[in-house]
Design brief:
L-arginine/glycine Amidinotransferase, Chain A, 9 helices, 20% strand, binds delta-amino valeric acid
């Protein structure tokens, strides 16, 4: 029997009741577009082979996604899946054209759930512009089934060349990129609000955005005006030359506890708000692998990209033994999920999901505000 749909989620750790799990079928490797170098590094095996991903890799990823969905269901979580469209098609707007679309993996980049609202993000890649369509059937259904569901869409970006520094990667060595990151100088400009939902970390009343490649300051400002009851913060991790998404860098595990990628530390100034409210920030365990799988956008730090089911239970990629051991020692029951074949499709267990319903309320975890991070600070 179908349970009544409730859309409500204020953080990434309260008891999970209902989630969307992405799909890998017909996923495409995008052709070149501005800023793609940030996502696909210069040595990647992906350059020059845009179009559908190899069929056998999509089949393996699909099997792992299906198994993950099955495990969640066996734990009493309702799982919905998006409806893929034909990703292998060119598309055009009045402002740009793209040779292919992308995939409905990872949903976490597209859908931002804040309380009773699901907001489609203003993503910065042209090939992902129409991705929200894969979630349209689910949004319609939630809209019909939950009278309090707020179905929202951030301002559609135009994604003209004004949104990018077209010469950003020209002759940019690792050190040059690092130096630019330190100056908060990214390939995306401040021309219009741009954000991926996976840059947005929800902690009740406070919402922390990573300012980087995929999310700009203007988006943080837009989010502040859109969510006036919340405090929007901008944080950044200066040792990451291509900061894309916060969920392999700074991951809350339960109230009061965050793991931080040890090679992407949050600067001291920005730690103060966590310290002032008795949040502990611990270094995440090292990844078990020394390189990502083939045709992968992400780094080995997908080890940290866990899906939390409640304050004591967490899904971890099955081969990420170091991360599993750390979570075990922090008091979690660890559910191993084989997922390395999904990594290449855009991320790990957190990336591959989007919250629909977690129990719990909007709490104020940061009553002691400290200047430095808040966008209106
Ligand atoms: O470390 O490559 C991956 C985050 C995907 N949501 C990284 C970031």
């Amino acid at each position: 029997m179908m349970t009544n749909t409730v859309v409500s989620s204020w953080n990434d750790f309260d008891p999970l009741k209902h989630v969307i799990v992405g799909r890998a079928e017909n996923a495409c490797i995008p052709g070149w577009e501005p800023a793609l170098e940030a996502k696909i590094d210069e040595n990647s095996d992906m350059w020059g082979i845009w179009g559908p991903r190899p069929l056998d890799t999509a089949e393996k990823a699909t099997a792992e996604l299906d198994y993950f969905a099955h495990v969640l269901e066996s734990r009493g979580v309702r799982v919905d899946r998006p409806t893929p469209i034909q990703w292998n098609q060119a598309a055009q707007t009045p402002d740009f054209s793209t040779k292919t679309l992308f995939a409905c993996m990872p949903p976490r980049d597209v859908l931002l759930t804040v309380g009773r609202e699901i907001l489609s993000a203003a993503m910065m890649l042209r090939c992902r512009y129409f991705e929200y369509l894969a979630y349209h059937p689910l949004m319609l259904r939630y809209f019909d089934e939950d009278p309090l569901f707020r179905w929202e869409q951030a301002p559609r970006p135009r994604l003209t060349d004004d949104s990018y520094q077209l010469d950003y990667f020209k002759d940019a060595t690792y050190d040059v990129l690092l130096e630019k990151t330190h100056r908060l100088d990214f390939v995306t400009t401040e021309h219009e609000p741009l954000f991926d939902a996976a840059d947005v970390m929800r902690l009740g009343k406070d919402i922390f955005c990573q300012h980087g490649v995929t999310t700009n300051r203007k988006a943080a400002e837009w989010l502040q005006r859109h969510f006036p009851e919340h405090r929007i913060h901008c944080i950044n991790f200066p040792d990451d030359p291509n900061p894309i998404h916060i969920d392999a860098t700074f991951v809350p595990l339960r109230p009061g506890l965050i793991i931080n990628n040890p090679v992407r530390n949050l600067p001291d100034e920005q730690r103060k708000i966590f310290e002032a409210n008795d949040w502990e920030i611990v270094d995440a365990a090292l990844p078990a692998h020394d390189r990502p799988p083939p045709l992968c956008y992400s780094s080995v730090w997908l080890s940290m990209n866990v899906l939390i089911l409640d304050h004591k239970t967490v899904c971890v990629e099955a081969t990420e033994v170091n991360q599993a051991e750390q979570l075990d020692s922090l008091g979690f029951e660890v559910i191993p999920i084989p997922f390395r074949n999904v990594y290449s499709f855009g991320g790990g267990l957190h990336c591959a999901t989007a919250d629909v319903h977690r129990e719990g309320e909007c709490l104020d975890y940061f009553p002691n505000q400290v200047p430095g991070t808040q966008i209106r600070g």
